[in-house]
Amino acid sequence: MNTESQNSENFLREILFIVFANKRLIIDTIALIFIAVLAVALLAPKKYTAQSTLLVKGKRVERNPEIVQQLQEKRQEITREDLNSEAEIIASVEVLKRTILALAKNDQVFDIPLSTNGNEAKDEAAEEKLIKTSSKLASALSVTVVRSSQVLELGIIWGSPSEGEAILKELVNQYLSYRNAVYKPEQTKDFYDQTVAAYQSLIDVKSSEIAMVITKIKAPESSKEIESNLAVKKDYQLQLGILEKSRLALTSELKYLRKQLDMVDQVAQFNANRLPGHEKKTYQFFSNIENQAIRDMANIVHLKLEEYTKISRNFVASSERAKSMKAELDKSYRTLVREVRALMEHQENELMAVRDSIRFLQSKVDEIDVRNGALAQYQMQLEKLEREKRLLEKTYENYYRLKEESLMFERIQSASLNTQIIVLTPAWASSSATFPNKRLLIPFGLVIAVLVALTVAFINEYFDDSIKRASDSERYLGLPTISALSNKEVTTKPSYTTRIIRFFINLPKKLKRTSNK
Predict the structure, then answer these.
(1) Are 382 and 484 within one domain?
(2) pLDDT value at residue 405
(3) Beta-strand (E) ranges in 411-500?
(4) Is residue 376 a contact partner of residue 382, using CB atoms and an 8 Å limit?
């Protein structure tokens, strides 16, 4: 018990010894720090705080293609991420720049060079000044989310209460405006307008191309014309078949007639070459020719030949009756040959007419084929254009509907978007300066000064390896103390301020020396 009490007394005595040994150092340190705190409290420029609070009522209405087409609104609960997003928008560089430019435009708070139309100047100096001012404003601004609520608390520390209040008011206005631009961009309406106009132009172009194709082909209903042409072609082909049969029959008959007439010529040549006294003629009766007139004439020739034969049996060839009968027989035979030749000429003319008809019908069939080929080609082109036009019209209808629905949602959001953010507390500035707060700063500075001074004293004592008491020689050197002499020599000691400065200068060396030990 006595040992513990003695150890406690020694510990307290050591602390008091250190304090009294470094009392001047402690007093000077406290004095220096307290003077610095007083200088800050009395001489530092005053800062005033402007505050405002916002309530986030509900999350913005979601707009995606499915919800837009179903004409539905889906509202979600507010999350911590949503509140942090709103805080980021408030403290964004764009909102800060808009606030600075709006105040500078009204000749308030900031002096930023502007262009003639009131916008930001495009020179480097103005841009650099705007960036620096935005950084200054960002460092002075604080946006916090009140715990367990949907409230955003805005604060700004500024040198003038009126300027701080004006900055915070304008900041809230620019935040609401920029928020509208973020959640309801104007580009959406422009996009739908431009897209609808573009598709309308494409539809007009396709309609013009279709009209040009119809005008070029001169057949509004090409499929019906193709069917009609195919029916006509079928009739022409039937006629061609009939004419082809006629042509073949006429060709065969003409071949037979030529052969028969050639035989007539051969018989005539044979009769002409007979020796005198052998003038008996050979006749060709064309019995296989399918012609009634020729058959009748052939029968007449045959009868007269029989009659002439009977006469020639009873009369000599030089008799009048034989001559007369012979003349009639020759005349009838010549008539028969002329009829055959006339028939052959008629059939040749008829064959030429049939051939002309065949060529004419064949040309018509070829024209129909060419026309149908052109119609089919144009029909394919027309169908392609029609498909493209229908696709464009469908796309046009979709975008037009989306445009109308976008306008409807825009009207709904225009009425409700700003009501989602409610200004609970308008911007207001404190009448008293928040910095420096003398009532808080001076006592707090005094406490800090005492703590720092004691810390310096203990650090100085820790690194001071000189022997100050008789007991130190026994503790550190292990040698007994025989006697102690007081140092009566008067020496000029440096001031305590100088000693404090030297202490902090030599502190790294002492730390290094201690670590080496």
Answers:
(1) no
(2) 72
(3) 421-429
(4) no
